[in-house]
Amino acid sequence: QVQLVESGGGLVQAGGSLRLSCAASGNIVIITFMGWYRQAPGKQRELVAIITSDNSTNYADSVKGRFTIFRGTAKNTVDLQMNSLKPEDKAVYYCHLRLWRPYWGQGTQVTVSS
Q: To bridge 2 with a disulfide, which of 26, 38, 44, 47 should be the other Cys (CB 3.0-4.6 Å)?
């Protein structure tokens, strides 16, 4: 069984920063990629950023230059540094782990006030 534990969401003013962390545990053999998606009210879940097993990264156009994804210091962890946050970044952010099937965290709320 695989578990994802997220932390770091919260309320921040526009222009501020937050850092999200995700730790994966359980029966993890080969990670295809790990990353973050988000879902705003009334919208579909969308990719924010992912990092692959060979450390390639992919970002949504809307966050390029503002968000950075990187591996945490502990094994099977991934962090998302979010800078210059905008009100439109408000969403529930979900950690995502792709093994032989996808796994999702429970989500952490990010709210950006204008």
A: 26
